[in-house]
Request: fold
Amino acid sequence: MIKAAIFDLDGVIIDTAHYHYIAWKRLASEFGITLTHENNEMLKGVSRMRSLEIILSLGNLELPEQQKEQLAEKKNKWFVEYIESIRPEEIFPGVIELIRNLKKQNIKVGLASSSKNAPRVIELLGIAKDFDTLVDGTMITHSKPDPEIFLLAAHKLGIAPNECVVFEDAEAGVEAALAAGMKCVGVGFVEQLGNANKVVARTGDFKTSDLERL
Ligand code: BG6
Ligand code: MG
Reply:
């Protein structure tokens, strides 16, 4: 019996995953590293610093901690610039309806994003009030694939992990949800997210009637 739905943000509610991608691609190119859509999948869901380390490892580069901090900050500045123009109209089709339908069935709704920018994105989209709780990258020690973020969200919602379903577009996020003992709906391609209990092409394709079959 599902009593809570926990949504990832980037790539599940809005296509901010694309802005992370172009900001990292821009930074990678400064080191002569070509970030492709394929290796970008490894960056989804993981922390800012972990993403940078993955990119540097693609170019067999190791840099001192201080320089990595500066580079992560530089990428973040670009990302923050890119997202300032996002509008509520860019929320993926059917997402708001899905959240409302879940609530009509007395299912609590949470947001769990590894991003430290999640509060700003939610503010720009005007959807803070749609969530019963919000957990972001500033509140956790270990980012996805560690289950910490989802366990914290479930705890804040007062719902047991095995009564939660997570919506995720990242392989690391699917792993995290399953490690938390939750059900998971993958948003994207079955080739990447095949471990999820169900995979939909777009978040809005999921119907509350699908909950029974997870
Ligand atoms: C996740 C994204 O939501 O947040 C990752 O999928 C990103 O790509 C991570 O690296 C951290 O985001 P931020 O905004 O704190 O750099
Ligand atoms: Mg995501």
About this structure: The mean pLDDT is 97. Residues 17-83 form a domain with the DNA polymerase; domain 1 fold (CATH 1.10.150.240). Residues 145 and 172 are 4 Å apart (CA to CA). Strands lie at 4-7, 108-112, 133-135, 164-168, 183-187, 198-200.
